[in-house]
Amino acid sequence: xxxxxxxxxxxxxxxxxxxxxxxxxxxxxxxxxxxxxxxxxxxxxxxxxxxxxxxxxxxxxxxxxxxxxxxxxxxxxxxxxxxxxxxxxxxxxxxxxxxxxxxxxxxxxxxxxxxxxxxxxxxxxxxxxxxxxxxxxxxxxxxxxxxxxxxxxxxxxxxxxxxxxxxxxxxxxxxxxxxxxxxxxxxxxxxxxxxxxxxxxxxxxxxxxxxxxxxxxxxxxxxxxxxxxxxxxxxxxxxxxxxxxxxxxxxxxxxxxxxxxxxxxxxxxxxxxxxxxxxxxxxxxxxxxxxxxxxxxxxxxxxxxxxxxxx
Length: 311
Known about the structure:
Strand content: 15-25%
Order of helices and strands: EHEEHEHEEHEEHEHEHEHEHHH
Largest sheet: 7 strands, parallel
Number of domains: 2
Number of strands: 12
Structural class: alpha/beta
């Protein structure tokens, strides 16, 4: 099949384009959110092909993956030469994010579109978004396995937050001061430089994360941070806020989750000071992550959905 989709979320798209299809990815000379093209900091296979607006308008497309409201609102139609997603070309809307606002106001932009399929990346999101009459499905995340890289040689905690300063309380950036009084923290992530964070290519990021003794996930409100699942794949023990989908993603043997900061602080001290305990929990984390968030299961689920909508 030929699948048309924008490069919006690097880690998710990296997993998605590892399937057995051809992926047409919009590109513009200056890049930007409407034409980012192939990833520069992730490794993508050759079947992810960049297309210009002129090429996209004439391309044979079997299905469109929508990920933003503006794509549904006309952007995709303009790129596809007037063809309408859901009406002229089969379409799936992938919702990556947890809804914001009051419960009664959490109506999805693709609500009441029976010509679309709305796919959520977590069961939490499926529960909280109001889709109206739009049919929904959940396809949990899949990760391109970086391998067991854990050494834990540095007795510090790794934290990965993109845009940590701008997203402050949403990402738990305000909690880092509390945790940092218990153990030393190393912050990584895009546009986190003002807080001392480093933005690294994915492969180097994984190596640096795995050198730290423990992974800290202070996120209050997100679907399910892929950096958390990547840390588990690396073999890192996890200390995380027990919010949104985290309670389903981190079993007790893989680390410690709680909504009590003091419980998480004790867990950080434990793992930093007890390397053998950290090692054992990290191995359990990797085993669980491979079984639940493996790439093969993710791609198989997506193949089923793509075949269903393209009939």
